[in-house]
Amino acid sequence: MTAPLIVGAMVRTLGAYPSGWRHPGAHADPAGDAAVLRQVARLAEDADLDYLFFGDWLATGPDLEFRDPYLLARVDPLSAVLHLSAVTERIGLIATVNTTYADPYATARATASLDVLTGGRGGVNLVTGAEPRAAANHGRDVHADNASRYDRADEFVRALRLLWESWDEGAWVADREAGVLIDPDRLRTAAFAGTEVRVEGPLNVARPPQGHPPIVHAGTSPRSRALAAAEADLALIAAGDPAAAAATRTELRALAEAAGLDPDDLKVIVPVLPVVAETDAAARAIVDRLLLLVPIDDGVSGHALRAGFPANRSLGAFLDLAGAPDDDASRRAGIDDAVPAGAAGRFGEAAGRVLDLVIARTGRRLGGEHPVTWRHLVAAAAVPANFVVGGSGAIADHFELWRDAGAADGFNVLSAFQPAQFEAFTTLAAPELRRRGLLGRSGATLRERLSLGAPRPVHARALAG
Predict the structure, then answer these.
(1) Strand, helix or coil at 199?
(2) 344 - beta bridge partners?
(3) What are the angstrom distances between the C-alpha of 441 and each of 3, 175, 264, 389, 427?
């Protein structure tokens, strides 16, 4: 019998789609994140999801309002998981740490503490960073290049594991009669001195219940893939279709095997952005509303005059994508006018794909009483998203299709806005996923829920070498 998929939630309190915060009833103020985080955690645990995942970004600026509003102001991920550790009992909690700027000892201490406090439900997502503005926030002139960042990441993860291994099993004796609290022979230093990272140890936190909390990594460069295959338990990938995802998964598993690891211990996870409702039509209506709420240069709202507004959010930009000549009549259209069939027939391949997606995801058509407008096309082209739209059956079909294609071991569920869309996923789609055997893993610790093998001690590998 096939094991259930790994299903986690990637938590973005202001929503994963840039206009999500504008949807009626959506959470729109990060000052109130604590209540939303607790609600999301309760919903996820009641639905028997495997973990909550918190990403990170180490800078902010006005441009993020339009591109990724959820990055503007957000709770630190380690703070978020420690907050939720007190209000959850079963679900895994994964926080992101940027190895380019973080201190390995402080990271080992925080993540081991999380694991101890949750009884083995902690995990850490290690990233090297892609935001140049982060450098100045950490006293540096420039953001390090890719090779330098991964040189440090390789050493960082080794130091992290050595620190987690400071206390052997049985090191804590607590013999009241003999007056012996610890066995000093089972307490070891890290004694790691690399080019980028140096740490002595031991770690002043008890042995993590999982030994090594699961490590997560995402990236597309060869160095990133190599790090994921050699060190990660979960590899996060992005792929537009099952065939591409299956090819990446095959590559990562081969890299893991070449590194001397069991490829079955590397779980490949893909993102999914379900828009869920009681019916397919109701879900399409939500996508329709999200597209209409995307701020664009419509000549009326004044959005284009604001700092950081993207240049591609205009009718002119879309018609350039469509290959329309400068004298095309469409360039004089109103942004909320219906798209004529004749104009659509002249679209190039890229604009034609956008039109097809809008029709499929919103239920609109060319002409008629519910037509596609230019606003829909501008928004969908400028703010693309791989929505999976429909009722519970449509969402479960998507999960099943990707599993059967060998494209993924699981999914990170994103919600276009909070908390209503996550509630719709957990109360409508999750029961259908369980019914089909796609959801519902077991295990007291996160490692057990993810069906990971025992971690390989780094100090043992060093001695063997």
Answers:
(1) strand
(2) none
(3) 8, 38, 16, 25, 18
